[in-house]
Amino acid sequence: MRLSECTEALSKQVWRLRRKPQPLSEYTDLSDFRLKHSEHKNPVYQAFPGARAGRAFLYQNTRPVSEKTTSKTLSASKIHPPRGLVKYVRLPYDSVMRNRNTFGQNRERRHMGLLLLTGAVVALAFVCLFVGSSNMTLSECFSALAKKGTAAQNRIIWNIRIPRVLAAIIAGAGLSVSGLIMQTNLNNPMASPSTLGVSNAAVFGANLSIIAFAGGFLSTGNNVTNYMVGANPYSTSLMAFLFSALSILLILGLCRVRSFQPGVVVLAGIAIGSVWTAATTILQFYATDVGLSAAVIWTFGDLGRATYRADLIMAVIVLAGIVFFSLMSWRFNALLSGDAAAKSMGVAVNRLRFLSMLLASVITAVCVSFLGIIGFVGIICPHVIKKLFGQDHRVSIPASALSGSILLLLADTLSRSIGNGSALPVGAITSLLGAPFFLAIIFGRKGGRG
Amino acid sequence: MLEISDLRFRYSRHSPTVLDGVNLRLGDGEIGILLGKNGSGKTTLFKNILGIETPSGGSIRFDGENLLRMNRRERARRIAYVPQDIRFGDLSVYDTVLMGRVSYFGFKAGREDQEAVERILQEIRLEEYASRSVEALSGGERQKIAIARALAQEPRLLVFDEPTGNLDIANEQLIIEEARRVAKEKGIGILTSLHDLNQALDLGDRFFFMKNGRILSSGGSEIVTEELICETFDAHVRIVEIEGKKYIINGGNQK
C-alpha cells in the first residue's frame, strides 16, 4: 500500500468509501439515486468538482449490479453507466460531501457565472463606449480615451459617454439589487424597487418642479433654455428625490404600526403610489403644453442626464447598499424560511426588513431622480438570476447587480444605435429586451428550477 | 431548565386572550408534550417561548435567566424551532443547515460552523444529501433537515411544532425516533405538540393538557386519564393498560 493510500485509509470517512454496496431497501428513498432525466438515452452521473476517489454503485431496481471505482480525475468528471441496465447510481460519499464553504452544489459553476457576468459588464461597457451617433472609429475612440484625440472627440468620450456608461452600470446594479431585496423582504415575486411608491412620488416631484416652478426659481432640467442659462440642473432631481423620500418615510412609518407585514407594505405602497399618480394627473391637467411635454419627457428614463457628480452620488449609495445587503445575505436566506423561522434563528426580522427596504428604496429614489423612470430592471434581472443561480443571497446579490448593469448597458447601446441620432427612452428598451428573455427563462425547461 | 409562569398573550389590545396564565416547567433533556385541541394556544405558546411573539404578561425563565430580556441571538443559541410549515429557499441541504449557525457567525460562516454542520449531517445521516437542493426533497427529508438546522443552533431546548403533521407512517416513526435520540443522547429538552395520543404517551416524559389558553393539568403519564382527555378534547376515549403501558382507544362510554 502506498503512503498516500494509507493516509487515505486513515481519514475519517474512508469506511464509507469502502463499504459494500447495500441493496436498496424498499423504504430507501430513491430520489437520491434517480436518474435526473430518465428519458435521456445515455444517462451520465457527474460527481461534484473536487470530489475524492470512491466507488460509485450502480443499481438495477434495488439490487446493486456493479460498481465503478472513480479515480480522482474520473470522479471529477463523469460516470457513464451501461445503458439500459442501470436504474440508480449512488455516488461516492465524498463526491457529495466535498462542498464545505461553497455556494452549495455548484460552487465552480456559480463562481464561473459571477466571473462571466463581470466580464460581460466590462466588455459591454466598452461596446457602449464605442457606439454612438458621432461616427467615431474605434481607433479614434481609443485615442480619445487616452485623451489624445481631437478636443471634440475627447469631450464626447470623457464628458458624454463615460458618465453615461457609468450611470448605466451603477443604476442597473442598484435597481436590480433593490428589486431582489424587495422581493425577498416582501416574500412577493411581483415586488419591485418602487413598491414603496418611490417612482410615482419621484414623478410627482419632478412634475411639480417642471410644471409649477418652470421658469421660476427652479429650472426644469429638460428645458433647454433654462439649462443653457445655467440654472441648477439638479433642482428637478432634488424635488423628485425629496418626494420619493417623503413617500418612503410615509409608507415605512405607516407600516411600522403593523410591524412590516409584507402584505400590508405592498398594499400601502399601491395606495400611496396611486395618490402620487392622482396628484400628478391633476398637476398635468393644469400644465401648459410645453410644461406637460417637458414633464412627460422627464419620466422617460434617460441615461444621458448623468453627470460625474450624479454618478458619484449614485455610486456611493448603491455601493453602500450592496455592501450592506451582502453582509446580510445569510439573514435574507433565513428570511426565505419565513418570518417565524428566521426570528427563531436569531434574526431581528422587523429591523432587517425596515433597514433593507429603506436602503433599497433610497437607492431606487436616487437612480430615478437623476435618470427618470427605468422600469422592469428590478423585476427581470433578479428573477433571471434566481432561476439561473438559485436563491442563495450570497450569490444572487452580486449576480443581480451585475445582470442589472448588463441589461442597462445593452439597452442603452441599443437605444442609441437604433434611435438614429437621438436615444430612445432606455426604460422602454429594457422591457423590450428583457421581457422575451424573461419569458424564455420562466417557461423554458432548460435552466429552469421551478 | 424552562420555567414559565403566568404567561399571558393576546395579539392586540382588542383581540381575545390566547394565553391566559400558562404555567409550565420542563427539565433538562425532558420531552414535554402539549396536548390540546386546535386553537387551544399550543403554537402561540411556542411562539412566545421562541420570541416570535411578545407576551403581554408573565415571565419565561431559562436556566434562571429572564428569556424576555435576552437578545434574539442569545436566545437562538438556547432554543431552536422546527416549525409546522417548513419552508426553505432553494439552498443546498448543507447551506440550509449552515443557516442555523447564523446566530453564532453573524455575517460569514467560519471553520467551526462548517465542522458543526458536517457533524450534524453525519449524526442525522443526511451527509449524502449535503449538496442536493432542499426543494427536491420529500416531506420527511425536509423535516429531518429542519431538525438538523435546529440542532446546528446547538440549543438546550428544541421546540417542535406538530412534528408529524403531514408525514406518512414510516417518516413519522423516523422523526419520533430522531426526537427521542436528540433528547436522550444529547440531553436537549424537547417541547412539542402531537395529535396522536398514543404516540405522545410513548414519547413524552411530561404532558401538558391545554385548553383555551390554559394548562389544565401537567405531569407524567400517570396524569393521563379518560376524564382529562374528555375534558381537553371533548372526545371520548378509553384507556387500556397492557404490560404497564397505557394505550388510548377511540370511543368509550358515551354519556
What does this structure look like?
The complex is a heterodimer of chains A (450) and B (255). Chain A contains 19 helices and five strands. Chain A is mainly alpha-helical and 450 residues long. Chain A is globular and about 80 Å long. A six-stranded mixed β-sheet of chain B has the order 6-7-8-3-9-10, sandwiched between helices. In chain B, strand 7, helix 7 (169-186) and strand 8 form a beta-alpha-beta unit. In chain B, helix 6 packs parallel to helix 7. Chain B is globular and about 55 Å long. Chain B starts with a strand and ends in a 5-residue tail after the last strand. Chain A binds chain B through residues 27, 29, 31-32, 48, 90, 93, 96-97, 99-105, 327, 330-331, 333-334, 336-341, 343-348, 390-392, 449, and chain B through 47, 50-52, 72-77, 79-81, 83, 85-92, 94-95, 99-100, 102-103, 105-109, 114, 118, 127-133, 135-138, 140-141, 149, 153, 159, 170.
Summed up, the helix count of chain B is 9
Which sequence of SSEs, written as H and E, runs from N to C of chain A? HHEEEHEEHHHHHHHHHHHHHHHH
> What is the approximate shape of chain A?
globular
User: Averaging pLDDT over every residue of chain B, what do you get?
Assistant: 88
Biggest β-sheet strands, sense, barrel of chain B:
6 strands, mixed
Give a brief outline of the structure.
With 450 residues, chain A is mostly helical. Helix content of chain A is 63%, strand content 5%. Chain A is globular, with a radius of gyration of 27 Å.
Topology at a glance:
The complex is a heterodimer of chains A (450) and B (255).
Chain A: H1 3-10, H2 14-18, E1 45-46, E2 54-60, E3 63-70, H3 72-76, E4 78-79, E5 88-90, H4 93-97, H5 107-130, H6 138-145, H7 151-186, H8 198-212, H9 224-229, H10 235-257, H11 262-285, H12 289-299, H13 308-327, H14 329-335, H15 339-344, H16 349-371, H17 377-389, H18 393-418, H19 426-443
Helix pairs in contact in A: 5-7, 5-18, 6-7, 7-13, 7-16, 7-17, 7-18, 8-10, 8-11, 8-12, 8-16, 10-11, 10-16, 13-16, 17-18, 17-19, 18-19
Chain B: E1 2-10, E2 17-26, E3 31-36, H1 42-50, E4 57-62, E5 65-66, H2 72-76, E6 79-82, H3 93-99, H4 102-105, H5 111-123, H6 139-152, E7 157-160, H7 169-186, E8 189-193, H8 197-203, E9 206-211, E10 214-219, H9 226-233, E11 237-242, E12 245-250
Parallel strand pairs in B: 3-8, 3-9, 6-7, 7-8
Antiparallel strand pairs in B: 1-2, 1-4, 4-5, 9-10, 11-12
